[in-house]
Amino acid sequence: MAFTLPPLPYEQTAFEPTITKEAFEFHYGKHHQAYVTNLNNLVPGTEYEGLDLEAIIKKAPAGGVFNNAAQIWNHTFFWNSLSPTATAPSGALAAAIDAKWGSFDAFKEAFTKSAVGNFGSGWTWLVKKADGSLDIVNTSNAGTPITGTDIPLLTIDVWEHAYYINYRNARPKFVEDFLTKFANWEFAAKNFG
User: Fold this and answer.
1) PROSITE patterns recorded for this chain (predicted)?
2) Would you say 161 is a known binding-site residue?
């Protein structure tokens, strides 16, 4: 079973001019595709052959197979965490955010601090804990919450390749735009449900 690059849920021009088609061509078309290609080269003839992506991530130790599988999963989740139409949390998710942080503005402040301070390359996640509460979690490199008990609701890719073409080294502005313009709260609500 060969892995394929999942289609984007929108056109590569959907976020112009803030996130350009060129940025998607590199981040999605080259980086994400490279993880798919690498995994397809690593899996044949191993114990991972025939397993789906999540099963590989949960079974593989740190190393090439895990890194490429997790990066495929993380990137696919990230593309779905973006929406070209600004949305806001509502319903049960909004209530859970208020219960944890006191307000959506306080959540944005906490998420921004976490994402901007996530050293090096990695991901910042809004997750649902096993007890139903919410938290903000940073992972490094290919780390992903699905290896534990947290349920990912929304993520931002803070690897430099995610924002460098359009933002250069201004990670704080990228995080701000994510939270105010691009975060797909409908996707997060489905994951929370």
Assistant:
1) SOD_MN
2) yes
